[in-house]
Amino acid sequence: MNTKQNKNKIKVGLIGTGKISGFFADITTEPPTTHAQTITKLPEFVIAGVVDTDFKKAPAFAEKWGGDTYQDIQTMLSNIKCDLVVICTPDTTHADILKEIATHKSRPNLVIMEKPLCISKNQLDELKNCPDICSMNVIVNHSRRFDNRHKTLSKKIAAKTWGDFISAHWVYYGGWLHTGSHVIDTLQMLLETNLGISYIHTGFNDRADDPSLNLHLTAKAHQNGPIYIESFPEYAFQLFEGELRFETGRIRFMNFGNEIFLDEVQINDINERELKITTPFLAEGNETAIENLYRQAADFLLEPKKEKLNGIDFNAATNVMSFLFEAKANISDTNLTK
Is residue 80 within 8 Å of 13, Cβ to Cβ? Predict the structure, then answer.
């Protein structure tokens, strides 16, 4: 760790060594899809420390990706001056770990954490009312905010490239907090709007601690265009896909948003408007979302300016969570007027 080669690199402390961290990933796989793969690929970073409560797991992870191993966060932060700490632990631990990091005397300059930010309204209120957390730089990995295609689409939608927004439909698996957070953040990002609630009822209950919801929402900035969100049973298979409909076309997000298609209107021989022309939607740059996440992190750490985190910071994450908990509190069999 203390070699000349690593001396000027951004030192990363990684908490949790499971799937999204990179425990099962291959070092040579391209493009990178996990945190350890990305940190190792980008020359600005080095894994300095690894924490896992399963101390048998941490050494195997560190042997593959590097870093010293620790059984607790306090010891790692006291022994390593981490520039960046990454939280990749189960959802139920996120809020407590964030508080533990924020109150440490050697806290890092930036924290990246997997979503969701927390799992209850009480936890959210605690985080928002904690001065140490509010003063810390935090990015929650709502991954589509870092995807080049999603960012380009958001700009084109704002410019009304396909006319006015009409409606949307999204299907997701897993829990409302765990996966629904991606749905809400993606819709808010793409449509640049707050969402209104018309109707909510419980969906599939694959995860007892995080049941799914089915919702009818409205896009407030788009003449309250309807948005229908449907849960899908994870026991059948994992499904995350959606579509946005406009006056002159439709955008389809397939395979967890990894494939995006644009269907454009064509007028047929009898003057009817049909969706005929289908093309994959591409964007400049081959970087994956997680690569862009770490490039933005490096840019901030090398020249810290708060505005660089606009739209991806702690406040952005709390806005998403506030809506998720508002929805949970408004499950009803009758229409709402919000």
Answer: yes
